[in-house]
Amino acid sequence: MANRAGDWLRQAERDLEQAQDSQRAGRHEWACFAAHQAAEKALKALHLHFGQEAWGHVVARLFSDLPAQVQIPENLVEKGRVLDNFYMPTRYPNGHPEGAPFEHYGILQSEQAITYAGEILAFVRSQMA
Predict the structure, then answer these.
(1) 81 — phi, psi (to 5°)?
(2) Measured between alpha carbons, how far is 81 from 79 in angstroms, rounded to an integer?
(3) pLDDT class for 2, splitting at 50, 70, 90?
(4) Global pTM value
(5) Is the CA virtual torsion 88, 77, 125, 56 positive or negative?
(6) What kind and span of H or E run contains 114?
(7) Which pLDDT band, with edges at 50, 70 and 90, does 74 fall under?
(8) N or C: which end of the chain has fewer CB within 10 A?
């Protein structure tokens, strides 16, 4: 079976572009969600690169399940935890006590999410090089 790590990484890069496009359009909740997706898919690409499959959507967990030889900068795991907060509440009205998701996200959150996802993608690229 072919190794699909490159396919996952390319989709992660496209998801990060979508996050940037959504931010420019003022859809910050979608920018945050797409940034999370970019980080998740990039880490799944790294798992595949090392010959293992990964399941789930928790970025911090995807980091912890990497092979022991992967030296993960401590701050990237923390940044993954921030991104994990954008997986569900950015999409569902019951993710917050009141209001639609778009009412809870703005430029500060989307900027942080895009930056953190970009750092995770850069880390994954460096490991796959």
Answers:
(1) -65, -35
(2) 5
(3) confident
(4) 0.96
(5) negative
(6) helix 107-128
(7) confident
(8) N
Dist. CA 46–CA 49, nearest whole Å: 5
Helix (H) or strand (E) holding 119: helix 107-128
**Whether pLDDT at 1 is above 90:** no
3-state secondary structure of 115: helix
Per residue in 6-45, pLDDT (tens digit) is 999 999 999 999 999 999 999 999 999 999 999 999 999 9
The first and second tokens of residue 123, run together, are 């880390």
Alpha-carbon distance of 89 to 100, in angstroms, equals 9
Residue ranges in 25-106 assigned as alpha helix (H): 28-49, 59-64, 74-84
Under a CB-based contact definition with an 8 Å cutoff, are residues 105 and 34 in contact? no
Residue corresponding to tokens 């993954």: 80
Token pair of 39 as six digits? 């980080």
Tokens of 48: 């595949």
Kindly state the DSSP code that residue 3 receives in the 8-state scheme: -
For residue 19, give every residue at least 6 positions away whose Cβ sits within 8 Å of its Cβ, in sequence order, or none. 30, 31, 32, 34, 35, 38, 110, 113, 114, 117
